[in-house]
Amino acid sequence: GENVEQHPSTLSVQEGDSAVIKCTYSDSASNYFPWYKQELGKGPQLIIDIRSNVGEKKDQRIAVTLNKTAKHFSLHITETQPEDSAVYFCAASQSKLIFGQGTTLQVKP
Amino acid sequence: NAGVTQTPKFQVLKTGQSMTLQCAQDMNHNSMYWYRQDPGMGLRLIYYSASEGTTDKGEVPNGYNVSRLNKREFSLRLESAAPSQTSVYFCASSGGQGRRETQYFGPGTRLLVL
Fold first, then answer.
1. How far apart are CA B60 and CA B63, in angstroms?
2. How confident is the model at residue B96 (pLDDT cuts 50, 70, 90)?
3. Which of B41, B90, B105 sits opposite A101 (nearest CB)?
4. Of B40, B43, B101, which has the smallest distance from its Cβ to A32's Cβ?
């Protein structure tokens, strides 16, 4: 079955710096790759997603890149702000979502 | 729209007790899901319902049962709770117009089994 590995597990950056979170997946049939942000005490919320026919997608300060050959995808957050501090999850899906283990991002003011 | 709602928010059970976690969505979604979240393990799928009247096992179904009561509601039942079922449980739904795969999550139920 599908397996998704996410790195790093924790990431601390200074406000204004960029943050990058990476995921690899095992099932080459996966065709949908969402990223979720989870704030303390809340449920995960979709922030951006990408489909396998697209290599890159950007939405304001966040972007996602996908390398189908290498089976990895990444989340890039530029000009980080303290409110970006949260746990971020990647996921891969061909029929059901398989989640990575999560990355705790801390943005220091 | 309330989105996805879950009750209760918190629950403490003793080993062997039973309980039902309730989930409802008002987005007219066809598919609904139950996940559990444990530290360092992401979210793992327990059961899902692709449409009203159908349910299927996910990665970790043992010790759980589900009921898709109608299109809006999907409940998760623990018949005999065990300490290993201490977790945060999330319900999600998907099937929106033009964005079928996007899953929307509820706020979660925090369960402690003593």
1. 9
2. low
3. B41
4. B101
Q: Is the peptide bond before B8 cis (omega within 30 degrees of 0)?
A: yes
A86 with A37: CB under 8 angstroms?
Answer: yes
Compute how many other C-beta atoms are within 10 angstroms of the C-beta atom of residue B20: 14
Residues in chain A closer than 8 A to B103 (CB atoms): 34, 46, 97
Which of residues 55 through 114 in chain B touch A, CB cutoff 8 A? 58, 90, 92, 101-108
Q: How far is CA B88 from the centre of its chain?
A: 10
A67-100, pLDDT tens digit by residue?
Answer: 999 999 999 999 999 999 999 999 999 888 999 9
| Exposed/middle/buried for residue A69 (C-beta within 10 Å: 0-12, 13-18, 19+) | exposed
Cis before A8 (ω within 30): yes
